[in-house]
Amino acid sequence: MDFWGIHVMKGDINKLRIEFQYFEDCPNHKRMKDNLLKAMEGIEDSIELINMLVEDEQTASRVNFRGSPTLLINGEDVENMPAPERPSVACRFYPNGIPSAEAIRSRIEQHRLEG
């Protein structure tokens, strides 16, 4: 259905929007992606997954890139990191390590309950 030029698909309104932001030169993005996919097992139908490859400074600025890898659930950072003042293409440091599949699933479930 078109509504003011926007294509709306029936049923998609209830899906969580998960955006996986990364760039290829950062070694941790593969582990984060594996953890994300494991966290999504069994609930894939309730999630809209967007893979956002950030290859340049313009894209980094446009998406408020926090570094690679970043995981946003309905626009919120999985670790509540605020958007940077000067986004750039860089690797992200996680003080406690890359979020585990269990930690990601917990955040997904939290958003599902809030939704």
How does this structure look, described?
With 115 residues, the protein is α+β, with helices and mostly antiparallel strands. The protein has a single domain, classed as 3-Layer(aba) Sandwich (Glutaredoxin). Helices cover 28% and strands 21% of the residues. It contains three helices and six strands, in the order βββαβαββα. A four-stranded mixed sheet has the order 4-3-5-6, covered by helices on one side. Strands 1-2 form a two-stranded antiparallel ribbon. Strand 1 (2-3) and strand 2 form a beta hairpin. Helix 1 (29-40) crosses helix 3. The model is unreliable at 1-11 (pLDDT under 50).
List the helices and strands and how they pair.
Elements (H helix, E strand, L loop, with lengths): L1 E2 L2 E2 L8 E7 L6 H12 L6 E7 L3 H6 L7 E4 L2 E2 L23 H14 L1
Parallel strand pairs: 3-4
Antiparallel strand pairs: 1-2, 3-5, 5-6
Helix pairs in contact: 1-3
